[in-house]
From TrEMBL, chains A, B:
Keyword DNA-binding: yes
Domain of life: Bacteria
Keywords: Aminotransferase, DNA-binding, Pyridoxal phosphate, Transferase
Listed name of the protein: DNA-binding transcriptional MocR family regulator
């Protein structure tokens, strides 16, 4: 089995066939022609003004609350650096996005995972911790098509979370990169829409246009936004306006909406195939959320069943992420299956290989 | 006096008329056409491979020692985060680049300034500190056309510094963004050329192509490079390949060399005018290095003469940086004059205004 034939369920990357290369070329040319002097000069650390103004209008906030940077992860890192002390604590869903866990870990703050039980946040566990006197500064969440589980948080849980954040005075950090990638069913309101004053919203165009643009953003309360902006300026002066202007031009031409439509057509059959193959191969042997969108399905293997090790994966022609990265503790029985960059055929074959690697 | 007429000696920015917009447009189009799938996908944290390979050849190091990112300042911030503890100490020229001082200050390390006396590093002071037992981890320097003084370090001082770094086991961090912008005279060897094993070299294309590309790089010993790479990946996955590919294409077409030639023609008369006007207006009232290149001339005002405050600057139609930012302590009698973004006429008028603001 050569590397060429390995089916990779590793990172959550979009497929290259989804990149609107020609259109981005056109946008690059247009913005350089129209606004080259501004784009090629140093800029403001908060980001390219037209994009920030557009985002401010979208999220009904002031421009000063919008920070655009080199991906949303870096903005989260900056927020952590300006606002967290080692004596603070942060709550996270467990499992959660591994890179975010790494960033919070570096801050030296106390991290508390609140379990996702088959995709449902264990609100009783959360209340127990709060009742016991724990006072997080932030609760980081991905309410829509969660990474790595695929879960969507029900409306009641969203409302309960906001109520608790108000009672106990913590901010919800809502990470929304997959929110617009819904292939079936109806969207629920974002936490940010329900309670903008309690929510820091972050997202990016990596999954909606292309990761290579490195354009992400964060909507923050004014004081925190100013702290992040100043720290960003002191650290990297500004992120590239060129990339931000390309994204803005793409949006203004109506191409983001069109692109989203195409992505949904591309990803919908992939998700459907993954779910039907899982049903055939893993029924009774694992539990999983059946998401209606996003990038991931997360498998919780049944008691006593473990994730195949690297050697077994290689033998089966598979590559998986190390799932322990998604958990503060544990993760040995969890498998994340990113499905967007694999064809339906590869997904079928991949799930079969996973099944063989585990059960044969 | 309206804002429109204010002459700004504030940041070291290139003039917009220096930006090769059309050529960058062509490069953007070419690289997206040729390599769009790669540029628009997630990439390696160390940077776009062809640019790294080219830099590795230029600096005669392995590709693994080259990290390309969103400006060299951010790479320095990352180096500081991965390698400095509060108990460490760092030496810097005094005065030095204010943004770098901010980054080192944040690390909580002990900072020691080694005075630049009329552009000459006070080597006796340095040896005294070393003899007293101080052991810096890094000595950050800008040997060529220093920011903010304009000084070029003589060869003997370079050799002495390397000798001391070898004896006492510290790294020299050589920041070289202005090195290629020499308008008169002959270049001296870079510290990195003299002793690559003791020097971390950093530079960027902000001053050689355009700041808006946000492409900087760092050459490090292999172990430190790997630490920076891993930390960068955990923080921002990768900096934009698109921008790095544009810079690379620009270089490959021979346009960097051409651009440098044009920049020198543009900046040479600006420097010459600034120096002759200073001679006419400040002789006997200040001392300054007479640089043969770069972006800055730094004035040390004579004893008892102070930098005009903001109100006096405004009244005179001037804007200056707060020079205290360039010093660990002091800076009240220092004025940095960035000259590249002002025409010879503006420079003449600006120096006259500065003179009037101080002496009338």
């Amino acid at each position: 089995m050569t590397d060429n034939h390995i089916i990779a369920f590793t990172r959550g990357v979009p497929p290259i066939e989804s990149f609107p290369i020609k259109r981005l070329e056109e946008c690059a040319q247009t913005v350089l022609e129209r606004d080259g002097n501004c784009l090629l000069q140093y800029g403001q650390a908060a980001g390219y003004v037209p994009l920030r103004e557009w985002l401010a209008a979208q999220y009904a906030v002031s421009k000063g609350q919008v920070i655009v940077g080199q991906g949303s992860l870096q903005l989260l890192d900056t927020l952590v650096r300006v606002s967290l002390q080692p004596q603070d604590s942060v709550f996270l869903e467990q499992p959660t996005y591994d890179r975010v866990l790494t960033i919070f870990r570096r801050s030296g703050t106390q991290l508390e995972g609140i379990d996702l039980q088959n995709g449902l946040l264990d609100v009783a566990q959360l209340e127990e911790k709060l009742n016991a006197g724990m006072r997080p500064r932030y609760f980081y969440l991905i309410p829509d098509f969660q990474n790595p589980s695929g879960a969507v948080m029900p409306l009641e849980a969203r409302q309960k979370l906001i109520e608790l954040s108000q009672t106990y005075g913590f901010y919800l950090i809502e990470d929304g990169p997959y929110r617009d990638l819904r292939y079936h069913g109806q969207a629920l309101p974002a936490l940010f829409e329900l309670a903008p004053e309690r929510v820091i919203f972050m997202s990016s165009y990596s999954k909606l246009i292309s990761p290579g643009l490195r354009v992400g953003f964060m909507i923050l309360p004014p004081e925190l936004a100013e702290m992040v902006r100043k720290f960003a300026e002191d650290t990297y002066i500004n992120a590239s306006y060129l990339n931000q202007a390309i994204a803005y031009e793409f949006i203004q031409r109506g191409w983001l909406a069109e692109n989203l439509g195409q992505l949904k057509e591309l990803y919908r059959p992939r998700l459907d195939t993954l779910l039907s193959t899982l049903e055939a191969e893993f029924s009774g042997r694992a539990e999983w959320v059946k998401p209606e969108g996003g990038f991931f399905v997360g498998l919780n293997l049944a008691q006593g069943i473990c994730v195949p090790d690297r050697t077994a994966q290689q033998k089966a022609g598979l590559a998986l992420s190390d799932s322990r990265g998604f958990f503060i503790d544990g993760g040995e029985q969890f498998v994340r299956l990113p499905f967007c960059a694999l064809t339906p055929e590869q997904l079928e074959e991949g799930v079969r290989r996973l099944s063989r690697a585990i059960f044969s």
